[in-house]
Specification:
With about 180 residues, this protein is of the alpha+beta class. A four-stranded antiparallel sheet has the order 1-2-4-3, sandwiched between helices. The structure holds flavin mononucleotide (FMN). Flavin mononucleotide binds next to helix 4 and strand 3.
Length: about 180
């Protein structure tokens, strides 16, 4: 699949076939994610891949603030990636000490996580696996369920599985609405 097709044809998938994605395939996707760019190449993104049904149920019960739309997606997802990142590094010139180098402060860590998130979704799509990013999440609760180390915080959940729907393209703004030349 070429890059343009991959970017344009990825959709959020919220219905999945009753078929698990094997862990080797998920490892291949993470292997692709390693190539995402990051602030000073600090590579702060982490991926906790949950394919245990009981744990996914816990995420539905406690991890999405009761948002029924996300609960419904989790009810048929075959896997969930907890995308987290190591706190307190991106945005600094020295990851171990010092102030943040720009006016954006630590915002660059969320920026890194966003790039990692899209890379994961595109890599999965290229391998025939559907994904849906969740921003409506309970970070603290998910940290507990995923047993994240203290140094990490949750950026997003990404459900994944073999898609059982083919949603039409969601509307997009026109080129002239979102760009300007000078
Ligand atoms: C940061 C972010 C948070 C999102 N949160 C949710 C969410 O909580 N639940 C959900 O079903 N979709 C969520 N989405 C998916 C968007 O609704 C979706 O990407 C958008 O409508 C465009 O559709 P497409 O992904 O099919 O192109 C989120 C997407 C992003 C990038």
């Amino acid at each position: 699949m070429d890059a343009i097709t991959m970017i344009k044809e990825r959709r959020s998938i919220r219905k999945y076939k009753n078929k698990r994605v094997d862990r080797e395939t998920m490892r291949e996707i993470i292997d692709i994610c390693r190539w995402a760019p990051s602030w000073a190449n600090f590579q702060i993104a982490r991926y906790t891949l949950i394919d245990d049904e009981e744990k996914i149920k816990s995420l539905a019960t406690d991890g999405v603030k009761g948002f029924t739309y996300n609960i419904k997606t989790l009810e048929n997802a075959k896997g969930v990636a907890v995308l987290s990142f190591v706190k307190g590094k991106s945005g600094k010139l020295d990851p171990e000490k010092g102030d943040y180098a720009t006016d954006k402060g630590n915002v660059w860590e969320a920026f890194d996580a966003g790039i990692a998130c899209q890379t994961f979704c595109l890599a999965a799509h290229a391998k025939g696996i559907g994904t849906c990013i969740f921003g409506v999440i309970d970070e603290e609760s998910i940290s507990g369920i995923a047993n994240l180390p203290e140094e990490e915080t949750v950026a997003a959940l990404i459900t994944y599985g073999y898609g059982d729907e083919n949603p039409p393209a969601t509307p997009r703004k026109q080129v002239d609405e979102i760009s300007r030349f000078m």
